[in-house]
């Protein structure tokens, strides 16, 4: 008898991590003046909050509000100089993922890494607050939306 396929996408902790580094391109209600005042491209530490997203399995996407290890909104610290992103799971345990690639693309900062069984990418608006995070595994993908700003 074939084993039952687990559709958790191994993402309970992964989504948290991707969320971590990952925090995403969300359309904010903040006006253009607020967005222009935020310069994420030169910051060494970013504070991100991932507030929503969708988890997609083959042929179907559903909104994410929580999973076993994390709950949205999720606070994520991105430490560019140290090359890590970090958050905590629902029990308060740290979740850390190493950033394997950092690229300054036109208008955005793009981070990539792997951890907890998923590959993740985080795109952070250079001059603004929008951010998106994607998490991918063999059985599906999650897209998270949020905001980032330099640490005060």
Q: Can you characterise this structure?
A:
This protein has one domain (11-150). The chain has helices spanning 11-20, 32-37; strands spanning 45-57, 60-63, 74-79, 84-88, 94-105, 108-115, 118-125, 130-137, 140-150. By secondary structure, the chain is mainly beta. It starts with 10 loop residues before the first helix and ends with a strand. It is 11% helix and 49% strand. The chain has an eight-stranded antiparallel β-barrel with strand order 1-3-4-5-6-7-8-9.
Question: What labels describe this entry?
Answer:
mainly beta; 2 helices; globular
Give a short synopsis of this structure:
With 152 residues, the chain is mostly beta strands.
Residue windows where pLDDT falls under 50 for at least 5 positions: 1-36
Given the structure, what is the number of helices?
2
Number of strands: 9
Q: Strand-and-helix sequence, N→C? A: HHEEEEEEEEE
Distance between termini? 56 Å
Strand order of the largest sheet: 1-3-4-5-6-7-8-9
Residue-averaged pLDDT: 78
Radius of gyration using CA atoms only: 15 Å
């Amino acid at each position: 008898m074939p084993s039952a396929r687990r559709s958790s996408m191994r993402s309970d902790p992964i989504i948290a991590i991707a969320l971590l580094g990952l925090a995403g391109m969300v359309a904010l209600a903040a006006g253009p003046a607020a967005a222009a005042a935020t310069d994420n491209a030169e910051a060494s530490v970013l504070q991100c909050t991932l507030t929503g997203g969708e988890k997609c399995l083959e042929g179907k996407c559903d909104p994410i509000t929580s999973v076993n290890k994390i709950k949205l909104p999720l606070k994520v610290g991105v430490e560019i100089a140290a090359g890590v992103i970090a958050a905590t799971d629902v029990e308060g345990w740290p979740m850390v993922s190493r950033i394997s690639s950092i690229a300054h693309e036109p208008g955005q900062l793009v981070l990539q890494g792997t951890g907890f069984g998923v590959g993740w990418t985080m795109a952070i608006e250079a001059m603004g607050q929008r951010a998106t995070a994607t998490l991918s595994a063999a059985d599906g993908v999650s897209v998270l939306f949020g905001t980032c700003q330099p640490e005060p």
